[in-house]
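Reading is simple: the token line describes the chain's fold. The lines below illustrate.

. . .
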Amino acid sequence: MGCIDLINLTSTNIYRPVLTRTSNKPYITRGPSMAAIRAESVATEKLGIFIEKNPPESKLTQLGVRSWPKWCCPPSKFPWTYDAKETCFLLEGKVKVYPDGSDEGVEIEAGDFVVFPKGMSCTWDVSVAVDKHYQFE
């Protein structure tokens, strides 16, 4: 069977669409548009780094994230130590952060809301240029 290009959203729960096929024609879309589907926010903590993927806009607005300073960085690799807790929201980019003493990295990317703890030393490996809002506490 080939790839599915379009789906039929007949379910009342837009996060669990129901695929239906009408005759031998390709899958078709009914109900809410695909643009109405938004991924749910998922928060995790790994190696001391808190990451929330797809935070709701209401949270970003409440925290004033869009008024925080911005920082940009081209693809590169460099060491970094957090003298204060940093909270940031990645607008663009992809980074793998390796906390000192760990061979394991933590991947962060555009759309992630991230908190780095005070005192953490790590290496940033930026694979896709980063543009982020940030705030130190």
In short: The helical segments are 57-63. The chain is about 5% helix and 45% strand. The radius of gyration is 19 Å.
